[in-house]
Amino acid sequence: MILSLAAAAAMSSGSGSSFNSSPLDPFDATSWSLGEDFSNSSSEPFVQTVTPDYHPAATAVAVQEVSPWDIALCVTGTLISCENALVIAILFYTPTLRAPMFILIGSLAVADLLAGLGLILNFVFNYLIDKSLEFLTLLSVGLLISAFSASVFNILAITVDRYLSLYNALTYHTERTVTFTYMMVVFIWVSCLTLGLLPALGWNCLRDETTCSICRPVTKNNAVALAITFLLVFALMMQLYLQICKIAFRHAQQIAVQHQFLAISTTKGVSTLSAILCAFGACWLPFAMYSIVADSSYPIIYTYATVLPATCCSVINPVIYAFRNPDIQKSLWMACCGCVPSNLSLRPRTSSDV
User: What is the DSSP letter of 211?
Assistant: First the structure.
């Protein structure tokens, strides 16, 4: 019996030594879940974690899908920036283009240039930078509000300038000084910059999404106020252009000698005014009306469908107010090819021309 007990003890000690001497197989499935370190003399268990070198599922980065509407707005912003940068360069490097009319055209070009850059920055902030940063969102929206508001008010200022040049034709050049024009431009920009700062000063819907308009983070009330302001500006422009047409027809009737010539010229001018007013209304009216009736719960595609035509107004503004001007055309021809076409009118264009 003693011998049997000794043999059993010897067998148990031999099997324990063989277990301790066997190496840990790294390819053994049971070894990865082992909870005790045999090389550690302490009896405290530890958790062994294994981190593989590569996990495709964990390292995959979700790519945000780019909306074709945002691409269209970014392309439109690039076109706007290029056009208006050219207008600003021509006005800046041509010393003869310093009349009040050209100051207003330059202010309009600056506003549209900032609007184009705002569209580009909005695309960058949405897709290339973390859009959760509230500061970038407020900066982008504030720039767009200020730029487009300044664009609309500069168009109104140009319309008022054209009306006064006809209504007070004899005293226009003495009353409309460069200083007065600069003061009017400063007033426009201060007002528009104030409008752009409102979202950053707290008039936004970042804390309450239910108050958002179709253009986050602008609140519904602010969007309605801006839309109503635009409608008032549009109504004023229609009244001024109507008065311009009446004055032009009256001048045509007063000069009997040049009646036929002036009738043709006046008819062409009225057609041009109608095209300008229709283009302005077609671009901005859909967005203004939709801003009044809609909010953030409406489908986003309707917002894009009204915003894109509004931005296109800044594309056609340089064509209407700058590139049609003979003085700017001559400067552009001189800058591009160093010559002026013989068929280009040599008569300086006044603000009463349309």
Answer: G
CA distance 213 to 306: 14
Q: Rounded to an integer, what distance in angstroms lies between the CA atom of residue 111 and that of residue 196?
A: 13
Residue 289 gets the label, from left (phi > 0), alpha (psi -120 to 50) or beta, of alpha
Amino acid at 169: A
Contacts of 150 (CB under 8 A, 6+ apart): 107, 110, 111, 114, 188, 189, 192
- Conformation bin of residue 11: beta by default, left when phi > 0, alpha when psi is -120 to 50: alpha
| AA letter at 321 | Y
**3-class state of residue 176 by DSSP:** coil
Closest Cα to residue 291, out of 231, 225, 224? 224
How many angstroms separate the CA atoms of 61 and 245, rounded? 61
- For 204, phi then psi, to 5°, come to -140, 170
CB 116: neighbour CB atoms within 10 A? Answer: 25
Cα separation of 107 and 95, whole Å?
Answer: 16
251-260: long-range pairs with CB below 8 Å, 24+: 251/166
Q: Which two three-digit tokens encode residue 262?
A: 């002036």
Helices (H), the chain: 2-21, 29-32, 56-59, 68-93, 100-127, 134-167, 172-175, 178-197, 220-254, 259-293, 300-321, 326-337
What is the three-class DSSP state of 257? coil
Structure confidence by residue, pLDDT tens digits, 277-336: 899 999 999 999 999 999 888 999 999 999 999 999 999 999 999 998 888 988 888 877
DSSP 97: -
* Residues 85-143: tens digit of each pLDDT: 999 999 999 888 888 889 999 999 999 999 999 999 999 988 888 766 788 888 999 99
Distance separating alpha carbons of residues 305 and 291, to the nearest angstrom? 12
Taking CA atoms, 106 is separated from 110, 118, 220, in Å, by 6, 18, 32
Six-digit token string for 14: 């031999």
